[in-house]
Amino acid sequence: MSAAATPAAGRKPELAGQTVVVIGGSGGIGLETARRARAEGAEVILTGRNRDRLSQAAGDVGAQKTAAFDATDTPALQRFFHDLPAPIDHVMVTAGGPAYGPLLEMHPAQVRDAFSDRIVVGLEVARNAVGKLRSGGTLILMGGTGGRRIGHGLGIASAVGAALPPFAAALALEVAPVRVNLIAAGFVDTPLSASLLGDQIEERRKELRDTLPIGRVVTAADVAALAVHIMTNTAITGATYDIDGGQQFV
User: Fold this and answer.
1) Mean pLDDT of 19-30
2) What CATH code is carried by the domain that includes residue 52?
3) Does residue 186 contact residue 243 with C-beta atoms inside 8 Å?
4) Mean of the per-residue pLDDT values for the chain?
5) Residue 139: in which H helix or E strand, if any?
6) What pLDDT, on the 0 to 100 scale, is given for residue 21?
7) How far is CA 64 from CA 57, 96, 107, 161, 174, in A?
8) How many other CB atoms are found less than 10 A from the CB of residue 168?
9) Helix (H) or strand (E) holding 19
10) Domains of the chain: total
11) Is residue 4 part of a domain?
């Protein structure tokens, strides 16, 4: 746990005594959220597809428990929550990612997967987690701001991005008093972003530093800080929070 992530001297950790589950917590935004939650006193439970990466992440943050499975595997997801001791306080879903490419070149299975990775997984997590979550606990979903632009190459990403805010709001009404909120991120500097962009990653970072109103690139730690705020502010539900450094405006 880094000193920068530790609560200020004399301040009580905001998640002391609480349990945070991160679906997709072996790296990137999920791992940073787990780290931030631990710094605020929470016990964390991590899931991910890669057992080795998950084990390393668990050691990194001192996770209470891990479970290796694919979040799109509904029976595995059901077993995970069924076996999870109650109660828990917060669940964050970072598994999955956006799908890009021309619509007419996408196979129907790819279109179904694009919605499944965000909406169907979010629904199945809610369905299985709600009985374990304390009243006032939180389900946090991940979306994006980039897909709000309609353009060549964005493909189904714009449709999925547009569907997520009303989906989260409707879900919040159905599972109340459990709270549901959506984080819509722009480009976030993570190992996944670096692997997708390859040799172009430094050029992309420089472009964003030069053009974003905040003058720097958004990091996973920025998103984690927002996630923990949503967990601790019990007046928030059905909301969408943009975090892209102003990327959608420039």
Assistant:
1) 96
2) 3.40.50.720
3) yes
4) 91
5) strand 133-144
6) 98
7) 11, 23, 40, 33, 30
8) 25
9) strand 19-23
10) 1
11) no
Whether cis (ω within 30° of 0) applies to the bond prior to 75 is: no
pLDDT of residue 36: 98
Assigned domain for 6 exists? no
Closest by CA position to 189, among listed 220, 148, 227, 147: 220
Q: For residue 240, give the DSSP letter.
A: E
102 upstream amide cis, omega within 30 of 0: no
Residue 224 forms part of a structural domain = yes
What does R_g of the chain's alpha carbons equal in angstroms?
A: 18
Q: Which domain holds residue 108?
A: 12-245
Nearest to 23 by CA among 119, 90, 100: 90
Assigned domain for 250 exists: no
Distance CA 168, CA 164 (A): 6
Write down the pTM of the prediction: 0.91
pLDDT digits (tens, 9 = 90+) for 158-205: 888 889 999 999 999 999 999 999 999 999 998 888 887 889 999 999
In one-letter notation, the amino acid at residue 10 is G
Q: Which of 117, 105, 116 is nearest to 152 (CA)?
A: 105
